[in-house]
Amino acid sequence: MLDRYTEQTGVKIELVTDSTGPLMARLQAEGQNTPADMLLTVDAGNLWQAAQQGLLQPVSSTVLEENVPAKYRDPKGQWTGLSLRARTIFYDPSKVSADQLSTYADLADPKWKGKLCLRTSKKVYNQSLVASMMEHLGEEKTEEIVRGWVANLATDVFSDDTSMLEAIAAGQCEVGIANSYYYGRLLDEKPNFPVKIFWANQGTTGTHVNISGAGVVAGSDNPDGTLKLIEWLSSDEAQGLYASSDKEFPVKVGVDESEMLRSWGEFKKDDINVQKFGELQTQAIQLMDKAGYK
Ligand code: FE
Fold it and tell me: d(Cα 20, Cα 210) in Å, to the nearest integer?
């Protein structure tokens, strides 16, 4: 996508990639002397943390206001969502039928004992999911659910979503929770991958969706140019690339979702403002720890 931007504008972009933690530590250490202009990362929980740490600067953009729904943007303009990912339920169709599935909370029911697989609670994706449940259901109910998940685990928690999905395919577990694009990428490699997607919470609050996104770095010496790039990433062309090559959902309404994403069917998304995932992150981590979710 960045190469495409360079082709169109002549603006060269130097890309430094790392996990969010080290990248943010580096921005922190470099302060105003940073060569960085834009922070591009995943999860509203991470972007919220970056803003809290003063690593981003507020921008105002009518283009972003038009392209990105308000619930996927920082109200102060320090970061914006650029793609959507659903964190939902996956299952082994040889053992489970879709009508046995309903909500994240239902995966705490004893009927799933020894059948559930989860990724580690250390991953921000699960912290954000639990934060959304705390917002909808309250702390007490959420803790009860998380305890139920832990009691139902088929095996130790996984370090990543892909191995969790592969464990379902291998028959190690029957149900699990993962981000939609990992499934999409597995299907790209193995069109007959024997796992199915289920849209969670359709009768209640809607499926949990999170963002990937970007913000202008506080120490950037080119905030205007950086904002142009972020605006371009919200354009129809870039949004289409998120859907076709990255298997994420466009954040911009009306952009074509690609054949694979459409094949998963329409679904109701949780309407929560994603900055809640940041606000409740510390409490979510504490709750998961208390509930014994490793
Ligand atoms: Fe991911």
Answer: 16
In the reported structure, the alpha carbon of residue 91 is separated from the centroid of ligand 1 by a whole-number distance in angstroms of 19
- Kindly give the distance from the C-alpha atom of residue 252 to the centroid of ligand 1, in angstroms, as a whole number: 20
Ligand 1 centroid from CA 203, angstroms: 26
88 CA to centre of ligand 1 in angstroms: 13
Give 177 Cα–ligand 1 centroid separation in angstroms: 13
pTM of the model: 0.97
- Amino acid letter at 136? H
Residue 245 tokens, joined = 């090559």
Centre of ligand 1 from the C-alpha of residue 156, in Å: 20
Report the alpha-carbon distance of residue 178 to residue 85 in Å, rounded: 10
Contact (Cβ atoms closer than 8 angstroms) between residue 242 and residue 180: no
- Tell me the average pLDDT across 28-55: 97
CB distance 269 to 206 below 8 Å? yes
| 92-114 residue pLDDT tens | 999 999 999 999 999 999 999 99
Domains and CATH numbers, the chain: 2-84+209-259 (3.40.190.10), 86-207+278-290 (3.40.190.10)
Q: How far is the CA of 85 from the centre of ligand 1 (A)?
A: 9
d(CA 178, CA 117): 10
